[in-house]
Write a structure and sequence with these properties.
single chain; alpha/beta; Purple Acid Phosphatase, chain A, domain 2; six-stranded mixed sheet; five-stranded mixed sheet; 27% strand
Length: 196
C-alpha cells in the first residue's frame, strides 16, 4: 500500500501545481491535522483513494463542518486492506480548544479506544497530530508531545507513527524521520510518501 501523508502546510505540488494523475499512485491519503477543508476536499476529489484524517489543534470548525468525502479516524481504529490505523488527533493543551488535551486527557482518550485496539490485535500505523514526548517535540507547551504515545508504541509496536504539528521550518535540524524501538516515526509536515 502506497500512502501520502500530509499535515499543517498545504503542498504546492499537490495543490497549486497539481497535474492530472499525480495522485493516482496512492492507495490512501492520511491527513495529520491543521489543513484547510478545501485542500482536503481537493485531494480526495482528485485522488482515486480514501482520505482519512485526525484533528489538529486548529481544526475546531471540522466538528460542525467536516471536509466532505473524507473519513475522520480521530479516536478510532480504521482498517483498509488489512492495515490497522489508530487515529488520535489534537495537541498538548496550551489554551482552551476542542482538540487540546492534557497528558491525562489524552490517556483517557486512549483508554476509550483501547477495546477497539485489542479487538484488532493492535495497529500498524499510529496517526496523530502532536508528536510523542521527546520524539520530534519541543519543551514549550504548544509543541510538547505526549508521553502516552511512547507507551502506545512500546506496547503495540506499530510499524509507523505519523504525526504533524512540528513544522519543518521551525528550525534547522528538525528531523523528518526517526526511529523508536520497532517504529519508524515520520513528521508529515507538508507531505511525506511511504509504503507499508
Amino acid at each position: 500500500m502506497k500512502i501520502l501523508a500530509v499535515s499543517d502546510v498545504e503542498s504546492k505540488r499537490y495543490y497549486d501545481y497539481y497535474t492530472r494523475g499525480s495522485l493516482d499512485e496512492f492507495d490512501l491519503i492520511i491527513a495529520c491535522g491543521d489543513l484547510r477543508k478545501d485542500y482536503l476536499e481537493f485531494l480526495v476529489t482528485m485522488a482515486n483513494c480514501p482520505l482519512v484524517y485526525v484533528h489538529g489543534n486548529h481544526d475546531d470548525l471540522f466538528d460542525t463542518e467536516p471536509p466532505e468525502g473524507c473519513i475522520c479516524i480521530d479516536g478510532k481504529v480504521y482498517v483498509q486492506d488489512g492495515i490497522r490505523i489508530l487515529g488520535l488527533g489534537g495537541s498538548y493543551r496550551y489554551r482552551n480548544g476542542a482538540h487540546m488535551f492534557t497528558e491525562a486527557g489524552m490517556r483517557k482518550r486512549i483508554l476509550k479506544v483501547l477495546p477497539r485496539i485489542l479487538k484488532h490485535r493492535g495497529f500498524d500505523i499510529l496517526v496523530t497530530h502532536a508528536p510523542a514526548r521527546h520524539l520530534n517535540d519541543f519543551d514549550t507547551p504548544p509543541h510538547r508531545g505526549f508521553e502516552c504515545f511512547r507507551k502506545l508504541m512500546e506496547r503495540f509496536r506499530p510499524k509507523y507513527f505519523i504525526h504533524g504539528h512540528i513544522h519543518i521550518n521551525y528550525g534547522h535540524g528538525i528531523p523528518r524521520e526517526t526511529v523508536f524501538g520497532d517504529t519508524k516515526v515520520i513528521n508529515a509536515c507538508g507531505y511525506y510518501i511511504f509504503e507499508i
